[in-house]
Amino acid sequence: VEDNLSQDLPVTNTTVVSPKVVKTVQEAVAVLFEVAVVGIFEGLFPHVERQKREAIDEKKTVIDIVLNFLGALMGRQQCSEILACRTGKLVGVQLPGAGMFMMMLEGIVPPSLKNWFDVVKEAVFDK
């Protein structure tokens, strides 16, 4: 049955052209994205820094963690290393035998996470 259907349908080469409305929407979205990025870097981050300076110690720690997490997601190496160090210190304090656990994990860590894991491991041993 499928062979009969494929033989009956004509094959044509058609080029899909985006309508002007689609192009206009794409350009508008690009402009909005650019404005959002500028707004975040020139508006939100300075505001957060002001809040961080004025915050009490406990709130300041939470703000630092969130900022480092966002920075790590954006690809900032220093933020990733800070998170790895904090993670290692937390694991070292909270998990009995954390050093042995880290040594066991060392052999199965993927190469792409090796640098991050090394920072975590060093922080676990430093406590």
How does this model look, in words?
The chain is mainly alpha-helical. 78% of the residues lie in helices and 0% in strands. Helix 2 runs antiparallel to helix 3 and helix 5 runs antiparallel to helix 6. The longest helix has 35 residues. It is flat. The N and C termini lie far apart (71 Å). The mean pLDDT is 78.
Set out the fold topology:
Elements: H1 2-8, H2 20-54, H3 57-73, H4 77-94, H5 98-106, H6 114-126
Helix pairs in contact: 2-3, 3-4, 4-6, 5-6
What descriptive keywords fit this protein?
127 residues; 0% strand; 78% helix
Brief overview:
This protein has six helices and no strands. The protein has 127 residues and is mainly alpha-helical.
**What is the alpha-carbon Rg in Å?**
26 Å
How would the global form be characterised? flat
Helix content: over 70%
- Mean pLDDT rating: 78
Given as residue ranges, the uncertain stretches (5+ residues, pLDDT < 50) are none
Please count the helical segments. Answer: 6
Distance between the termini: 71 Å
Q: Tally the beta strands.
A: 0
Outline the biggest β-sheet: none
Secondary-structure element pattern, one letter each: HHHHHH
- Structural class by helix and strand composition: mainly alpha
Strand content is: under 5%
